[in-house]
Design a protein that fits this description.
By secondary structure, the chain is an all-alpha fold. The protein has helices spanning 3-43, 46-73, 76-100, 105-133, 139-164, 170-188, 209-221, 224-254, 259-282, 289-306, 309-312, 317-349, 355-367, 370-383, 386-404, 407-413, 416-427.
Length: 432
C-alpha cells in the first residue's frame, strides 16, 4: 500500500476508532450510572457501592499481566473484537437473569467482574495498537480524539441515565448497552490494526508466558519514565479512591442530590475532559510531559479537598448544584492534563513488541492498591465524617506527587531540560 493510501486509511481509523469508542463508552456509562444508583438506593451503603467498584477493578488488576502476553503474541484486532463480543454476551445474560429472576447484588457483581475483564483486554489491545492504526504525526490527535469520545459519552450518559432512571426499567438500560456493544464490534471489524506497525505476531519468537512477562518487566526497568509513572500511578490511584467512593456517597446520601442533578454533575466532569481534549487535538506535542502531569495531579488534589465544603459550610441547594458543576469541570480538565501528555510520549517511546506487556503492567500497578482503597474508604465513609476522610486523603494525594515527581526526578526523566538550562545560563552575562 502506497503512502497516500496509508494516510487516507489512517484518517479513516481516526474517526472509526473515535466513533467506536463513543458508542461503546456511551452504553457502558449509561449502564454504570444506572447500576450505581440502583445499588445506593437499594442498600444505602457505601460499602455495597464500593464492592461493585472492586468488582470493576480487582479482576482486571489480576488478569492484566496475562493479557499483556496474549496482546503481544497474538492478533490485537481479534482480541479487541472477541472482547467486545464477550461484553455483549455478558450484558445479554444479565438481561435474561433480570427478566426471569430479578436483579440481585450477586448477579450485578458477577457481571461487573466479567465486564472488567473484557474492557481490560479491549482497552490494552487498543492502547497497544495506536501506533499501528495511525501515523506518528497524529498520535497526540488520536489520543485526544479517544479522550473526546469518552468525554462525549460521559457528558451525555449521566444526563440520559438521570432522566431515564425510574422512568424505564433496568432491562431497557441493558438493551441500550447491548446495542451499543454490537455496533462497536461492527466498526472494529473494518479496521487494520497493523497499518503502520512493523510487528508481525506470526513471525515473533513465542516465549513461554512467564518468560515473556519477565522480559516485559526487565524492559520497564530500563526506562526511567516508565518506572516513575508506575510508582506515581500506584499511590495516586489508591488515594483517589477517596473521591471514587466518596463523591457519589456525599452527593447522594449526605446532600440528597436528585438523580438528574447528580447526572449533570457527572457530565460536567466529562465536559472538562472534552474541552482539554479538543485543545490537545490542535496544539503541538507537549514538552516535559511528566512536569505537566505533575501540576495536573496537584490540581486534582486541591479540587478533591474542595468537594467537602458543602458539608462544612451552609450552602443553598441550588448553589450546591452549581458549585459541583464547577468543581467537576475543573477535575475533568486536570484529569486530561495529567493523562494525555504522558500517554503520547509512552506511545512513542515504548517498543511495539513490548507494548501489550508494558501497558498491562502499567494498568496492574495503577490499580494494584485500588481494591484495598475501595474496601478501606467504603468502611471509613460508613464510620467516620466524610469531610475529614476527603481532606486527609487529598493532602496525602498531593504529598505523593510532590515527592515522587520532585524536580530532580523530572530532570532525570527529561534530560533535555538540563541542556536547556545550561544554554540559558550561558546566555546570562557574568557580573563584573
Amino acid at each position: 500500500m502506497n503512502e497516500a493510501l496509508k494516510l487516507k486509511k489512517a484518517t479513516y481509523h481516526l474517526w472509526t476508532f473515535t466513533i467506536s469508542k463513543l458508542i461503546s463508552a456511551f452504553g457502558a456509562q449509561v449502564y454504570a450510572f444506572a447500576i450505581s444508583f440502583y445499588i445506593l438506593q437499594a442498600t444505602g451503603s457505601a460499602t455495597s457501592f464500593a464492592a461493585n467498584l472492586i468488582c470493576n477493578i480487582l479482576p482486571r488488576t489480576i488478569a492484566a499481566p496475562f493479557a499483556g502476553y496474549f496482546i503481544d503474541n497474538y492478533s490485537r484486532k481479534k482480541i479487541v473484537i472477541f472482547s467486545q463480543i464477550a461484553t455483549t454476551l455478558a450484558i445479554g445474560s444479565l438481561l435474561i437473569f433480570s427478566i426471569t429472576s430479578g436483579l440481585s447484588l450477586a448477579a450485578i457483581y458477577t457481571t461487573s467482574c466479567v465486564l472488567s475483564l473484557t474492557s481490560m483486554f479491549s482497552g490494552v489491545a487498543f492502547s497497544s495498537s495506536i501506533t499501528g492504526l495511525v501515523d506518528q504525526n497524529r498520535i497526540q490527535k488520536a489520543m485526544s480524539l479517544n479522550q473526546m469520545s469518552i468525554s462525549f459519552a460521559s457528558i451525555g450518559s449521566p444526563a440520559v441515565g438521570g432522566l431515564l432512571y425510574g422512568a424505564v426499567s433496568m432491562p431497557t438500560f441493558l438493551i441500550l448497552y447491548m446495542t451499543a456493544s454490537i455496533l462497536a464490534v461492527l466498526l472494529e471489524m473494518t479496521m487494520n490494526f497493523s497499518l503502520f506497525s512493523s510487528r508481525n505476531p506470526e513471525e515473533d519468537i513465542k516465549e513461554p508466558m512467564w518468560q515473556s512477562m519477565r522480559s516485559g518487566i526487565a524492559y520497564i526497568k530500563t526506562q526511567s519514565l516508565l518506572m516513575t509513572v508506575i510508582w506515581i500511578a500506584l499511590l495516586i490511584n489508591f488515594f483517589f479512591g477517596a473521591y471514587q467512593v466518596g463523591y457519589s456517597f456525599i452527593l447522594i446520601e449526605k446532600l440528597k442530590i436528585a438523580s438528574k442533578q447528580f447526572g449533570l454533575t457527572e457530565g460536567a466532569f466529562a465536559a472538562g475532559m472534552l474541552l482539554l481534549s479538543i485543545y490537545f487535538t490542535v496544539r503541538k506535542e507537549v514538552k516535559s510531559p511528566l512536569k505537566v502531569s505533575k501540576w495536573g495531579i496537584i490540581g486534582m488534589g486541591v479540587i478533591m479537598a474542595a468537594i467537602v465544603l458543602p458539608l462544612i459550610l451552609t450552602f443553598q441547594h441550588n448553589l450546591i448544584f452549581g458549585y459541583y458543576i464547577i468543581l467537576q469541570l475543573g477535575l475533568g480538565t486536570m484529569s486530561t492534563i495529567t493523562n494525555t501528555p504522558i500517554m503520547v510520549i509512552l506511545q512513542k517511546q515504548i517498543d511495539d513488541r513490548y507494548k501489550g506487556r508494558v501497558f498491562s503492567i502499567l494498568e496492574t500497578m495503577a490499580m494494584a492498591l485500588m481494591p484495598l482503597g475501595m474496601v478501606l474508604y467504603g468502611f471509613l465513609y460508613d464510620v467516620f465524617p466524610a469531610h475529614w476522610i476527603m481532606i486527609v486523603s487529598s493532602f496525602l494525594f498531593v504529598s505523593v506527587i510532590l515527592v515522587l515527581a520532585r524536580p530532580s526526578v523530572i530532570r532525570r526523566v527529561h534530560p533535555e531540560m538540563n541542556n536547556k538550562n545550561a544554554v540559558m545560563m550561558k546566555k546570562v552575562p557574568s557580573s563584573v
